[in-house]
Each structure stands twice: as structure tokens, then as C-alpha cells.
Write a structure and sequence with these properties.
This protein is an alpha/beta fold. The chain contains eleven helices and 13 strands. The radius of gyration is 19 Å and the shape is globular.
Amino acid sequence: MKILVTGGGGFQGSHLTEFLVGQGHQVTILGTYSEASLVNLTGVLDKITVVWGSVTDTEIVDKTVRGQDVVFHLAAHINVDESLQDPSVFLRVNILGTFNVLEAAKKYGARLIHVSTCEVYGDGHDKQAGGLLNEATEFRPNSPYAASKAGADRLVYSYFKSFGLDATIIRPFNLYGERQKSGTFGALIPILTHRALRGEDLTVFGDGNASRDYTHVSDMIRGYNLVLKTPSLKGQAINFATGTNTKVKDIANYIAEKLKVKVVHAPARPGEVSRFEADISFARSLGFNPKVTIWQGINRYLNWAKKQKGV
């Protein structure tokens, strides 16, 4: 099968690309050039077609979607804190970029598997029985990032309703794992790990009771493959997570104990949601069965990070 992965050189995009190549698919990636992307794709660069460019470039998107059977649309700006500083780039990439991908998929008849995020729900759990977020939960995004992804999510659905586009929407919950960004605007587990490896104190914002359903990238790749192999999901949205929440302070304390550093607290940050508890009953009905616990996943990340140069 001919498959395009937008954002294919990024953290999860590179894992997905490797998996698809291993399954024998003919893979093209579209992404913005970076040294990190080259490193992420080291094992498959000679087996894929690489197009350097942005989803905001209509012509490049059109050319790369043409001839593809399936498009996995992962390309996005993803950090909440960064979106507070520069919301405009999130609107351009996450909404207008998605529009470009939708137009090309419609034009060439490609199946679209769009990667949204649990952040679209925001505080929507307040109205849900038991506090769980299911696929019908109201969108109440708390940040410009979340709002841009909510807009893209609904834009994809509108193309299914208006034009009959074969589109499926995936909403991952707090992905983590090897290759995830650890520096400025990075993610929690990588940031804490790399600070601890440098012997620095670990900063927890607020009281640390905020909780998330942390999903290891290997489980998420299994979810993507499940969607790819299930053609009856046209117009559907699917939560992928583990079904178990973990508090930020517990993760910080675990890493601090492992690497012999201290945990300190700082004021809570704007735009954050106190908890994201996933209802994954629909994913489970499709055969999804997450395998990696948070502590197993953190240990895997710690072992990987220790082997990286410059740490």
C-alpha cells in the first residue's frame, strides 16, 4: 500500500514510519527539515521517499498526496506553552495545514487518518458521568494549541459529512516514549528525565495532582495499525489511551528516586487541564489492548536516554 505520513520525521511519526516500512508498505513522508528528523529516520532513510516541506505549502501537499492510498496526517505544532506565546503559527499549521491535506485527499481519493489529541476535550469531563472522556464528549479546549486541534478535528469531520471523504479521527492521550522532545517546549517525561540525568532538581508546576493517561508510543502505533486495517471506520473518532491515569507528581517522584535528585514545586501554568481520563471502550471493541504500563514505559525511556550522546 502507498502511504504518506505527514510529520513523518517527528517523534511518533518516525515510529509509525518505521512500523509501516516493516509491514512492507511503500512510505513517503512530508516534514520540515531538521537534524533531529534525520536522526529519527536513520534506520529507514534508504527505504522511504522523503519530501522536505510544510503542510502549509499547498503545492507540496498536493504533489505528495497524489498517488497515495492512505494519508496519516500527524504534522502539527503541539506544545501548549508554545501556543501561549505564538498562537498564530498553531492556527496556520494545525488548521490551514489540515485544510490543505483535506483538499488534496478529496481531490485524489485518498483515505485520511487524522491524528487529533485528547486536548480538544479540555474540561469537557465536567459533564461526563464518572469524569471519563468519550468520543462524544463536548470540546472545551483550554489553550490555543487545543483550540487549533479542535478546529482541525471538526474540519476533518466536516469533509466526511460534506464530501463523503474517507476520514477517521484518532485522539491519542499523552503520548511518550523514545525520541520525544526534551528541550524547550518538550514533553513532561523527557524533560524530567534529562534534567535528572544532569543532576538538576525536577520542577513540578502546581501541586502535582494533575493527572494524565500516559500512552507509550508503541501502543499508539498498534492503534494506528488497527485503524489502517479496519476500513469500516469512515467518519469515526477513536480515543487511544491505556485507561489508567497517573499524577504528575508521582511520575516526578519516580524519576527523581531512580536518578537521585529532588523534586521542587513552582506556580501552576495557565492553559492546563487538571485531568484527562479516557474512555477507551470503543478502541477496545476494535481489538485495542495497550500493553506498556507507565512505569515500564518510563524505564524504557530512561534506558534509552542514558545511551544518547551529550546527556
